């Protein structure tokens, strides 16, 4: 369960590199499935809850999001 004031990592997207050491603090809820987060330096982001790693499900580290590259 995602909670206000706690820090979370983002899930990984297959095929893309992202830093494992970045945490995002939940500072607000926009609606049922969207959260407002802040990094350590004050930069703010909006994510769907499903993109944060839920501490109740720590093995679910990959997002279901799929990017398709067309040439």
Write the layout of secondary structure elements.
Elements: E1 7-8, E2 24-31, E3 34-38, E4 44-48
Antiparallel strand pairs: 1-2, 2-3, 3-4
Characterization of the model:
- By secondary structure, the protein is mostly beta strands.
- It has one domain (1-71): Roll (SH3 type barrels), CATH 2.30.30.
- It has strands at 7-8, 24-31, 34-38, 44-48.
- The mean pLDDT is 87.
Run of helices and strands:
EEEE
Give the biggest beta sheet: 4 strands, antiparallel
- As a percent range, the share of helical residues equals under 10%
CATH class: Mainly Beta
Low-confidence stretches: none
Helix tally? Answer: 0
As for the number of domains, it is 1
What is the name of the CATH architecture? Answer: Roll
Identify the overall geometry: globular
User: And the CATH topology?
Assistant: SH3 type barrels
As laid out across the biggest beta sheet, the strand order is: 1-2-3-4
Quickly give the structural class.
Answer: mainly beta
Rg over CA atoms, rounded to whole Å, is: 13 Å
Keywords for this entry:
four-stranded antiparallel β-sheet, mainly beta, single chain, 71 residues, 4 strands, SH3 type barrels
Task: Provide a compact summary of the structure.
This protein is mainly β and 71 residues long. The protein has strands spanning 7-8, 24-31, 34-38, 44-48. The protein has a single domain, classed as SH3 type barrels (Roll).
């Amino acid at each position: 369960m995602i909670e206000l004031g706690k820090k979370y990592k983002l899930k990984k997207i297959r095929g893309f590199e992202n830093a494992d050491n970045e945490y995002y603090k939940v500072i607000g809820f926009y609606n049922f499935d969207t959260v407002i987060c802040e990094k350590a330096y004050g930069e703010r982001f909006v994510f769907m809850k499903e993109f944060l790693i839920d501490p109740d499900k720590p093995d679910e580290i990959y997002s279901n999001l799929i990017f398709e590259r067309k040439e």
